[in-house]
Amino acid sequence: MKITFYGHACFSVEVGGKHILFDPFITGNELAKHINIEEIKADYIFVSHGHFDHMLDAVAIANRTGATVIGGWELYSYFGRQGVKNTLPLNIGGKAKFDFGVVKAVVAQHSSSFQDGSYAGVAAGFVVKSEEGSFYYSGDTGLTLDMQLVARFATIDFAVFPIGDWLTMGIDDAIEAARLVGTSTVVGVHYDTFGFIRIEKEAAVKQFEEAGIRLLLPGIGETLSV
Q1: pTM score of the predicted model
Q2: Domain spanning 2-225, CATH class
Q3: Quick one: which of 151, 170, 108, 159 has its CA closest to 3?
């Protein structure tokens, strides 16, 4: 599988010949100025929750590409009202079969609201299970013992975890989360975008390494094989 990082918590995974985009927030990110959203490929867009820094560019990308946008019921309803033609609801505990594999929505301990303050449903994470491998995107979350259930659903080849602290897990909890889901490879997201979530990258990589876990911190726009 190939993963491309677009900054903050936005990334794309190429699996089964499809481009699966998660939490598109690019045009509002000063660190991602060099990324042109008109060039981003997407067959599916998964949105973990309603905060602007996870869905700002979802409508624009979906309308250009014809991608199907998937999220909890409130997100599904919202994107439908925004004129997105292809939408599907996926609430926590539910799983759905796609042409690239199976996706299950799982618990994420985090708040969720639209920019006007209205309710955006509960936050979620996603477990993707395919013939090429499986991965877990936790979405914005704190550490929770519910993560143990992820390993019962799939053997996780890599996990995508927030590591910036303050609003989500930090380094220590992300390491424990990797242990709970049984993976030795983590792609770190949700750091450096705002002043209070900046991290020391070299120190973070070393701390993960000392725990026996590989931490990948791709540059914005960089593609890695995982």
Answers
A1: 0.98
A2: alpha beta
A3: 159
